[in-house]
Amino acid sequence: MRSVIDCDVHQNLNSLRELVPYLDPAFREYLERGGYTGFQLPNYPWVHPSGFTMGDAVPSDGGVPGSHYPTLREQLLDGWNVEFAILTGEDILNVSCMPHPQLAAALASAYNRWLVDTWLPRDDRLRGSLVIATQDAAAATAEIAHYADHPGIVQVIVSDGARAGYGNPHYLPIWRAAAEFGLPVAVHAGAGGLGVNPPPTPNGYPDYYFEYHSLAPTSAMRHLVSFISHGVFETLRDLRVVLVELGVAWLPSLLWRLDANWKALRSEVPWVKRSPSEQVCEHVKFTTQPLEQPRQPSDLHAILDMVPGSETMLLFATDYPHWDVDQPRLIERRLPVHFRDRVMSENARELYRLPSPVLAAP
Amino acid sequence: MTDTVTVCDLDGLPPGSRRVIEAFGGQIVVFNVAGRLYAVDAVCPHAGGPLSHGRITGARLADTPFEHRWDLEDRILVCPWHGWEFDLETGSTLFDPGVGVAKYEVAVVDGTVLVNG
Description:
heterodimer; A: 11% strand; globular
């Protein structure tokens, strides 16, 4: 059984109160006393009727799925032969949709300390994503600089739900810091329409989780277009963006539209020198889960063929322990044969500069 | 071997005017832009738009994001359909030097405007 690098693993807290010891004392009161029924991060108004997590991922201690290392090790790391797991956190990503910028930054910092102190030392296979609160770009930049040299931190992570497209100049110092320290920026599905974020669609709030989840790619499209139109990839030639859990198969049509519009509307954004499709191929990666499921698997291959370089752009992910988890063997079989080594492990190894397996002496 | 086609007397193509001629198996538009003469295919290579009706203008250029520097005044032909911008000095689009409209040499001999194909 091939080993894989899993680029979206949701380890979790049992309770936000676990962050109290890691939190700036000025903000501990919020966690200890805030809220009517305890402090909560902005949360989803849409509810999966049977829960957001795999039914069999509840740990033996009865805690929250993803919170219990031995269960995660057994089910994911050992069970699915995961060589490296990129930890992406859980609803801590929602700090960026809170209305209190300093509290948000403090919570992100506390989470990062907890991640580095408790999770990363448990297993050589674990790597961390640095959560930042985007409200205060200077604070986010300082947080990135603080952890830039930590060997277990391999990327910066934000939610796709945001108050503006990520090309907006407000965010540029954050992306610049990430690029300068060689950390990719993961944009993970979530937080759209939560807290003080605007509605997650141009036509307001969906009524059902079914709608919300199905429309997730539209937010990824919005950020991609924003990055390109604002020249972020022209300014930061080293920046790499990973769109996590936001789909893959929609990409060709957006690139065709972007390339056509760039030729016609170049004069509005004259700093965009390279074609949008060229920029996306060089700067953007896409995690596979939830990989689109056409009736004919060959249809997915045809779509991947439409994007030059797509074999270098996909990163395998399970999304463990969420309800729509992708099992590695299933995904591997659905990929074109010549994509498999790259997508299941080697693209991620290169992006995150992960070590190659040590081969036994002959 | 090049063919030469007569467009008109120079008096018939004063600055700011243009003429469309049939030549070399298609339509060619000849511009007099402030005394400089240009000839290009009259049909846009993108989607067949009538370059004969295109505006001649300048272009916004930028070296860094959010710069808007007006330059290349009187050198840019804009297709009236989708807005592709062609540099009349080279025929190339501004988005890709490798993509452009066919451009022809224009000469004035004894007061007559000629296009070489």
